[in-house]
User: Fold these one by one.
Assistant:
Number 1:
Amino acid sequence: MTDALTLRPGVHLVAGGPLGISHPLDCHAYLVETGAGPYLIDTGVDPDAAAVRANIEGLGVALTDLRGILLTHAHADHAGGARALAAASGAPVWGDAAEVRLLRDGSDAALGLTAAKHNGTYPEDYAYPHFDGGRPLPPDWRAGGGDRWLSAIPTPGHSPGATCYLLDAPGYRALFSGDTLFHGGLISLLNVEGSDPADYRRSLPALGGLAVDGLFPGHYLFAVRHGQQHVDLALERMKKSVFPNVAVPR
């Protein structure tokens, strides 16, 4: 029995707080099957990752089968479970070098937690579960095999080392965009340390021309078809003087 949702063959939603399938503050986290085995994209906030672990195992996937844990960025709702999941699975935790540093020893201010606690999103006594075993993604990182591959696309802006992941599968291409880009052509530029509009302007064009079918962001709605339309809408809006911004729950 699992509360995980299979969105496409080989793409499973294993965390989603607002959907009631894991901790209430969890982002959307995805289990993605490749030709070399499954990868987990983001972990949710729960330092025990209890629901995420149960949802993965409920799909018939042993935690020790995980080939890697991929972080879109190190904010608590996306990386709080990294330490527990790495310990339970033995899988390496990968992320941009800047996010690996935040995961290891980032301050509350650098992680956006100071503002999030001020918002009331997190309780004042919330302690970020730092993890010092993260590995920086090498340039042109790619993993998988056969006809199912994952690759990384650096997209700093929401955070210093924000990263999207692209799945290439037979007849289907999907973008896992974290908090970089959302359904409806929206982005998430925060009023916190490390969230930079200049980075957004420079990095977002890398998502143009990908012809993605699926768009699977870290929050809100996802699209199993016509995902590139949402990407292209964001790129068009970025040409204007006001950011197409959305505040994500953090």
Note: Residues 76 and 128 are 7 Å apart (CA to CA).
Number 2:
Amino acid sequence: MNERMIVEYNFRFRRHGRGYRKEIVEGAEEPPQVIETGRIPRVTRLMALAIRFEQLLRDGPIANYAELAELGHVTRARLTPIMNLTALAPDLQEQLLFLPRVKPGQRSILLRHLQPIARTPDWRRQRRMWKDLWR
């Protein structure tokens, strides 16, 4: 008459919303997310910045490089090599944006290595120079 009953149920707590309000979610624990080690290469960040700057110039909120440099707290001379990255062939820009993360002690591509490629107007020649850079 007084039999024990055991009820098993899989659930987990999930943090939700601002202030991390907890809520109960049905099911077992989610597998942990894999976080890549290393850092995003500097040239990848600079390429993204150059694309964003170019968009600001094209859309009109920023009038010229001088205003852009002032807004970014850099000199126009420092801004020019960054903006030169937009002269790269589109596929090279994409490759720069998706470079693998750099681990400590690992060599990475530098902005100064890309400047001769960016100054070359012929995209086919840029691609050859890019391949030579990776060798």
Note: Residues 42-59 form the longest helix (18 residues).
